[in-house]
Amino acid sequence: MAGGVSDCGLPLGTVQVLPVRGVPQVKPGDNLAGLLAAALKPWAREGDVLVVSSKVVSKAEGRVFPAEERDALIDAETVRTVATREGPAGRLRIVENRQGFVMASAGVDLSNTDPGTALALPVDPDRSARELRAGLKALTGLKLAVVIADTSGRPWRRGVTDVAIGAAGLEPLLDLRGQPDAGGRLLTSTSVAVADELAAASELVRAKAGNVAAALIRGLPGVVTDADGPGAAALRMPPELDLFRQGAAPADNSAPRQP
Prior knowledge:
Elements: E1 16-20, H1 32-40, E2 49-53, H2 54-60, E3 64-66, H3 70-77, E4 78-87, E5 90-97, E6 102-104, E7 117-119, H4 125-140, E8 145-154, E9 157-168, E10 173-175, E11 191-193, H5 194-203, E12 214-218
Parallel strand pairs: 2-8
Antiparallel strand pairs: 1-12, 2-12, 3-7, 4-5, 5-6, 8-9, 10-11
């Protein structure tokens, strides 16, 4: 209803991005759902989206390795090398990792972890998101969506942003194909990466040096679903639709349109 207010006194359509503070340093074997539930009470609400840094998920799941093993760890996590470049900081590798995402260094990171250690991504981030969602439901009684976010670069764009590598309780893609735009023209190729937008928004309050492990996004109750959904795996581009995989070769115009 135009001009109305939400149950929290804000105009309808208002979205809030709230830092989740009070989560202690996470160690391998910690009950991450329990740590987050304690920090969320009593202000989390039904229909909120919880975006969690992949780093705390990796730590809780024991994906912590000696830093000197980083190169070997990148090799182990790589299924396809996309590009390499030598620079002042050493060799940069852009690869497809075994989770199916194209990332620098296969997502292996030395930041925001104890000195002398490196973090690998969760083995199955979608499963991690589902388990975390179920744990939070059991502890809080709330139906939340969960997104696991990690930092990634983008072709032809400077800077990095957070993207979803795991998700549960939402549809990661909003398919608008077949719907009219504001001018009445039917959309033919537009699918909105909702989970990525949520991940990027959360990073605004999860500053890299701010030691904030998670953020709540409020004001989008229609995003949260009863079912866990297909997860962030749905965001991966199928090889047959990936024009970038062809490099400088001409794209086949007969290939199906990207969703």
